[in-house]
Amino acid sequence: MAKKNTILKYDWRLGSADAEFCVDERLYPNAPMENLPLLASMQCSNAKEKEFTNLDLRHMNEFASKCERKLGFFFAGYIHTAVMRRYFIYLPDEEAGSHFTQLAEKQRNLDVRVEIKSDPSWSVYFKLLYPDTAKMQTVRNGEIIKMHYDNGDSTAARRLNLHMYFKSEPIRMQFEEAARLEGFAIGNTEERYPDGDQHDEDHKAEFNASQTPKADASHGEHLRAEFNASQTPKADASYGEHQLIYGVVLHRICAMKKREVDAVTVHAIRIAERFGGALAYWDCPIVPRAGK
């Protein structure tokens, strides 16, 4: 596979199974490539279809590197579960696809199955492998949670504040009602302007601060999970130009654990997408670990 610093990894679900998705970001700026219209996928499992051993993983990594050397093309990415890894590579023609199939058939240490199909628009790369806004936010969540832990935070439940933005006040109000119906508490409204300033307004803040686990007041600062529009595939330019200026803060009680934070941010983003909105960032109070 490609160098580690070109591979973006994130956790997601594949059907009912937990999976790790890996995508080579080097391909993104020039994708789709007209000279690589064929998609070859290679599914690897061990003979007993049980969880991979370390030896299985080593064989897969070695075989993937061999394929790249022989074919002269990089894998676009792969999806990995406990019992299956599926690689994806874009190829120029049927001859290259046949060569790839022959390489796979020579693999003796693993059960390897190859499928080749036309994908000139690289839909698998963009829609399956490359993270959308909600998936990319889970990557940022991991980074922010690590920063919290490094600064003495605990995993205790506390109020998570999600700053959501929309193109107009009526749309924001429609979103508020939808979010309320799906279990979020509605906090203050906000507005931000092209100069980058952000202004809070008094609003019908439904959230009761007494619901938040007690935290040391001296640690009341918030660590901010900034949303970077450039990190998302084909990001909406209007967001980067601050045209989504009508904001509202959602609240949800959540433990400072990645899976729980991911569930909250994905839920909020999916609701916002129905109204053309976005999550700008989230923050929360620090609840120090004992002894910190």
Secondary structure elements and pairings:
Elements: E1 7-14, E2 17-24, E3 38-45, H1 54-71, E4 75-80, E5 85-91, H2 94-105, E6 111-118, H3 123-129, H4 133-150, E7 157-166, H5 169-181, E8 185-192, E9 198-201, E10 225-226, H6 237-240, E11 246-255, H7 258-273, E12 278-283
Antiparallel strand pairs: 1-2, 2-4, 3-5, 3-6, 4-5, 7-11, 7-12, 8-9, 8-11, 10-12
Helix pairs in contact: 4-7
Structure notes:
The chain is an alpha+beta fold and 292 residues long. It is built from 7 helices and 12 strands. The protein has helices at residues 54-71, 94-105, 123-129, 133-150, 169-181, 237-240, 258-273; strands at residues 7-14, 17-24, 38-45, 75-80, 85-91, 111-118, 157-166, 185-192, 198-201, 225-226, 246-255, 278-283. The strands form 2 sheets. The protein has a 6-stranded antiparallel sheet, with helices on both faces. It has a 6-stranded antiparallel sheet with strand order 9-8-11-7-12-10, with helices on one face. Strand 8 (185-192) and strand 9 form a beta hairpin. Helix 4 (133-150) packs antiparallel against helix 7 (258-273). The protein is globular. The two termini are 41 Å apart. Mean pLDDT is 82; it is low at 201-241.
List its salient traits.
single chain; 292 residues; alpha+beta; 6-stranded antiparallel beta sheet; 7 helices; 12 strands; 30% helix
